[in-house]
Amino acid sequence: MTGSISAYKEPLVAIKAIDLGEDDLPDKTSESENPYRGDQSSIITHTRDSNRLLSPVVEELRDLIEDDPLIHRLFTDMFREIPRQPSFDTDPSGRLQIRDYKTLLRHLDDVIVGAPEFDTQTMMGFPINAVLAFPMATSSGIRAFLNEKVNGQIRKILNTWAVFLSSPESRYVLNSDPNRGWLGAKALSLMPNFAVDYVCNPAAPHFGFESWDAFFTRRLRKGARPVDSPHDNTVIVNPCESAPYRLAFGVGAHDHFWMKDQSYSLNDMLASDELSAGFYGGTVYQAYLEATNYHRWHSPVSGIIRKAYGKPGAYYAQAPTVGFDWSTPCKSQAYLTQVATRAMIFIDAEDANIGLMCFMPVGMTECSSCEVRVSEGQRVEKGEDIGMFHYGGSTYCLIFRPETKVRFREEAMKAGAGSPVLKVNSMLAQVGQC
Fold first, then answer.
1. Contacts of 5 (CB under 8 A, 6+ apart)
2. Residue 4 half-sphere exposure, CB side, CA atoms within 13 Å?
3. By C-alpha distance, which of 306, 299, 284 is closest to 402?
4. How far apart, in whole angstroms, are the C-alpha atoms of residue 266 and residue 280?
5. Contact at 8 Å (CB) between 383 and 296?
6. How far apart are CA 17 and CA 337, in angstroms?
């Protein structure tokens, strides 16, 4: 068994959360701290040809904007509300800041026919999120990207992009360029032991991956991530290769999750599911995945799937209190558990001290989709593959009932910036007598 377990204690405070800072204006952040900013010489403008026809799925978004008076106003005003100050002349990627929705549409049209290059300075290529970082922070932008019609159309655009990312044409970024290639020296330094840990063929073009998506959802080789304590049902293993973000006890049914501390609100997180009430007053553990992490999910416990389904939600929403910030997705993670596209997998754990629990993967930005690979009534073993994130930023929560006294390993208790990545299938927590 790896790691060590802390003794369970009744919480003295309702929540222990990551401290992500107070500044909300980009001119307070140095360029070296800007997670989007890469090579400025090659990214001056956004579009190839401002006169070309838009693809049908982007045309549909244009029609929605121009045919709905409220949406038209929001998409017009979100650009007007971006301050006219030098620090807002360029977006976080270093490109000229988009100032109208028509230019945004042309940019979206470019994005869906390309694959993201590796870049340590651009959060591994979030080309849509980068240009929306300022518009989505405005009052009108916050409202627009919570609009159900808007998110329905964004979903169509992202699904179209997903088709390209699943095609052989997307493999051109799976190359050995030392700076820009996903199989180059810089990228592989962030994915150590790649050829040893993952199913691939380094001697083949693109390491044998059939598409960008196949690379992103790559499989582990047998034995690469052994399951800790496979026969001890009191041990809960880490369902994703991830870094701790937040740990909260005594989480209520309803809370003001849109406020600055982004408190969890279980009824909202679980989308008013009929099983929600059993978790009121319980524990929430949240962790996040980087683009270079392994993106498949593994069952944290052995048991029976009570329910498993996806919940459509927002794609480019941000916490209203974050403001104009280059790290919007990271700083909105707790908020996104209540509004973003996500899935709920309820598991009746074999160990009675755990009982019913929920694994909730949350898609963040870009082409983030949650593919559930289990169904109601299915038995799963601890460490079994149960689904995956497709390309995009990702976070997840484990949710426990109040009577489940969970003791987390010390590393999981140290949520915050710079938290270590905990391997999938490694011990995360344990239940039982202290």
1. 407, 408, 409, 410, 427, 429, 430
2. 4
3. 284
4. 7
5. no
6. 14
pLDDT at 39 over 50: no
Beta partners for residue 298, in sequence order: 385
Q: Is 192 exposed, middle or buried (0-12, 13-18, 19+ CB in 10 A)?
A: exposed
Query: What average pLDDT score do residues 334-340 get?
Result: 80
Lay out the sheet containing 356-364: strands in order across. 15-17, 243-251, 282-289, 393-400, 356-364, 342-349, 303-311, 379-380
State the amino acid at position 221 in one-letter form: R
For residue 218, give the amino acid letter: R
Least confident among 62-76, 298-312, 419-433: 419-433
Average pLDDT on 144-153 reads: 94
Summarize the confidence of residues 296-300 as an average pLDDT: 97
- Is residue 284 within 8 A of residue 399, CB to CB? The reply is yes
- Return the pLDDT at 327: 60
Q: Which residue has the higher pLDDT, 119 or 387?
A: 387
